[in-house]
Amino acid sequence: EVQLVESGGGLVQAGGSLRLSCAAASVFTFDDVAIGWFRQAPGKEREGISCMRSTDGSTHYADSVKGRFTMSSDNAKNTVYLQMNSLKPEDTGVYYCTVEFGSSCLGAGSWGQGTQVTVSS
Description:
Elements: E1 4-7, E2 10-13, E3 18-24, E4 33-40, E5 47-53, E6 59-61, E7 69-74, E8 79-84, E9 93-101, E10 110-111, E11 115-120
Parallel strand pairs: 2-11
Antiparallel strand pairs: 1-3, 3-8, 4-5, 4-9, 5-6, 7-8, 9-10, 9-11
């Protein structure tokens, strides 16, 4: 199981930005993994918001964050990032980093402990 540690959450005003980090020990040593970000807002189901394939770096985003959030990686540091711009109150929630074998982020692999993001109006 891959150990994942998220950081970078906090309180920000609407329209602001945050960058989340996910330290994923040795994840890029695997040939084909999918690295994702999920979030869970209070009273709502968990939502997959972005997914990156390690094989080609291709990234996909949920419509709710497309154009505002950008996922990137630093392979040498075994770290993935989620740059969140133009934040909205509805972006509030606990954000989780995930890793699983394969090309899709289904939430079926390893999860981090989560980091809280709160966007005030």
